[in-house]
Design a protein that fits this description.
The chain is an all-alpha fold and 448 residues long. It has a single domain, classed as Up-down Bundle (Amino acid/polyamine transporter I), CATH 1.20.1740.10. The chain contains 18 helices and 2 strands. Strands 1-2 form a two-stranded antiparallel ribbon. The radius of gyration is 21 Å and the shape is globular. The mean pLDDT is 85.
Length: 448
């Protein structure tokens, strides 16, 4: 059986985490109702990295004890009840991966379309129907990635490594651009030193709201746990990939936000009429000019494919494991000769393409976000269950900093969920409602 290497696992974490979140979150943080203080903004990105590391070290113990691919689906099924695991698998398939794939593919299309010399609202007529060019590009990207991942574990892993190195390389180039083009633009003159306002901001309620968007940017830190059953030497490579991948991304996020605030003022970074703004394009245009930044934007669209590829490695593992555990879904558990979960990949491809041609997937992410956070929280809490039941094996990797690190993660996740619910109580209703189809499917499949 072909296995994923350590480098693939690390790159899965990096590729899953670095997506559109880092290039949009800062725009909302600099608003008056956000946390418009440079020091507080850097603190919250450090805090996001610390929380992710606390979760990563706990996931290492849970994953190496359960030792099954499938992420939260496998973990929650073993720790609590198969129904809870099945529900998390359902949410992961619909929102956790498919909607995220659709979002990244559309972002790729939006980045790439200017290189075609077309406006962002350009359409192509096929018969009597008209389709946005950005969605056609997104469709092509998804189909190409699917074709690559269907080749098998070895080929898909090699592609993942190459495309992730490209992404990190492009970010490194972006980080030095403000100094290469020094003198051709006016820096913001921002002061990163703490002030009295900084500490008031850090302990204020808007800080909790801003943490929600930061953690969205950090989501994906647990990506390699989805392939633990297909990973070479998981006892060593899984915790290594979770921790090293998260550390690398934390450093990249701090450097990017520092460059963003150094190069552009808060007014330039703030979204116009509360519309979504790509901070990368704003800063690149100011530093390099419109023509050069246009080329950079187009090349970066290719780098976004690394996130799509990583999700097509992790996501189908959840579906494949369901196929292995339930006879009603056994067709989803089949693999190609190269070890790729063929039918699971094709199902996730179909769901992602459907979401691309609907406008509802953004709403799905919004309302399901609290549910995904809840499943991560339950997984980390599972460390205490493992210790109580004494389920550790010789392959189990102990949680670093236990019990402090899982407690930090749990407390901050509860704080985030509380903010979500207070800010919009309907989120809880929609999140619970999204679980109902999974409950029905679970009992029907179990009866069959």
């Amino acid at each position: 059986m072909q296995k994923y290497t350590r480098s693939v696992a690390v790159n899965m974490v990096i590729a899953n985490m670095i997506g559109t979140g880092i290039f949009t979150s800062l725009g909302f943080q600099v608003l008056d109702n956000g946390i418009p203080d440079p020091f507080a903004i850097l603190v919250i990105w450090v805090l996001g990295g610390i929380v992710s590391l606390c979760g990563a070290t706990a996931y290492g113990e849970v994953a190496t004890t359960v030792n099954k691919s499938g992420g939260e689906y496998a973990f929650l099924s073993e720790l609590y009840h198969p129904l809870l695991g099945f529900t998390s698998g359902w949410i992961s398939m619909v929102a956790g991966f498919s909607a995220a794939i659709a979002g990244l593919a559309l972002a790729t299309g939006e980045y790439f379309i200017p290189l075609l010399g077309m406006p962002h609202d350009a359409t192509v007529a096929i018969g009597s129907l008209s389709f946005p060019v950005s969605k056609i590009v997104a469709t092509i990207v998804i189909l190409l990635v699917v074709a690559i991942q269907l080749r098998g574990v070895r080929f898909g892993g090699m592609f993942q490594n190459i495309i992730t190195y490209l992404k990190v390389g492009l970010i490194a180039v972006f980080l030095i651009m403000p100094f290469v083009f020094a003198g051709q633009y006016e820096p913001s003159g921002v002061n990163f030193a703490p002030s009295e306002k900084s500490f008031d901001t850090i302990f204020g309620l808007p800080f909790a709201g801003a943490l929600v968007w930061v953690m969205f940017s950090y989501s994906g830190w647990n990506a390699s746990s989805y392939i633990v059953g297909n990973l070479e030497n998981p006892r060593k490579n899984l915790p290594y990939s979770l921790i090293v991948g998260t550390l690398v991304v934390t450093i990249i996020y701090l450097l990017l936000n520092t460059v963003f605030m150094y190069a552009a003022t808060f007014d330039e970074l703030a979204p116009t009429d509360f519309a979504r703004v790509d901070i990368g394009n704003v800063v690149a245009t100011k530093i390099m000019g419109e023509k050069i930044s246009l080329i950079f934007s187009g090349v970066f669209s290719i780098a976004l494919i690394s996130g799509i590829s990583a999700m097509f490695i992790a996501g189908p593992k959840v579906i494949e494991q369901i196929g292995k555990d339930y006879k009603a879904f056994k067709v989803l558990g089949k693999e190609t000769s190269g070890g790729a979960p063929r039918n699971a990949i094709l199902l996730m491809c179909a769901v992602s393409l459907i979401l691309i041609y609907t406008s509802s997937f953004q709403g799905i992410i919004k309302y399901i976000g609290i549910t995904l956070t809840l499943f991560s929280l339950l997984t980390v809490f599972g460390v205490f269950i493992l210790r109580r039941r004494k389920l550790s094996t010789e392959n189990t990797v102990k949680t670093w900093g236990y019990p402090l690190t899982p407690i930090i993660f749990i407390v901050l996740m509860i704080w985030m969920i509380t903010f979500f619910v207070i800010d919009n109580p309907m989120i809880l209703v929609w999140s619970l409602g999204s679980m109902l189809p999974a409950v029905v499917i679970y009992y029907v499949s179990k009866r069959n």
